[in-house]
Amino acid sequence: MRLPGPLHALNEGLAFLLELVAIAALACWGFTASGNVLVNIVLGLGAPAAAIVLWGMFAAPRARFTIALPLVLLVKAVVFGAGALAFYGVGHATAAIAFAVIALLNTALATADRDAHFRTAAK
User: What's the mean pLDDT in 74-98?
Assistant: First the structure.
């Protein structure tokens, strides 16, 4: 299913917003995860940094390494799943569920759209 231009752009914009929200959720979780200030700083900076590096290396549109689609989807599931768990970890269960559902739908739609685009381009 290929999305019309405006819907494609909207879905891609939503994907970027979801990435930013996942990173912010990981930072919020990290900075409040423990009673130890040093641990909070390490987690608050390290968790989002790890997500950014993982995404940039394997899942970004201009990723450093090209990997098969199932592995890209796995990386996205790890980052978005960690973002949802981070929401849950700071006491926002409803936000965690909403984020996970929206990320799943967005990723599924983007994957179907890209697949249709490449099939059309190959003809």
Answer: 98
DSSP string, the chain: -PPPHHHHHHHHHHHHHHHHHHHHHHHHHHHHS-S-HHHHHHHHHHHHHHHHHHHHHHTSTT-SS---HHHHHHHHHHHHHHHHHHHHHTT-HHHHHHHHHHHHHHHHHHHHHHHHHHHHHH-
CB atoms within 10 A of CB 1: 7
Residues in the chain: 123
**pLDDT at 120 (0 to 100):** 56
32 neighbors 40 (Cβ within 8 angstroms): yes
Segment 84-113 shows an average pLDDT of 96
Q: How far is CA 89 from CA 69, 84, 92, 107, 113, in A?
A: 29, 9, 7, 23, 33
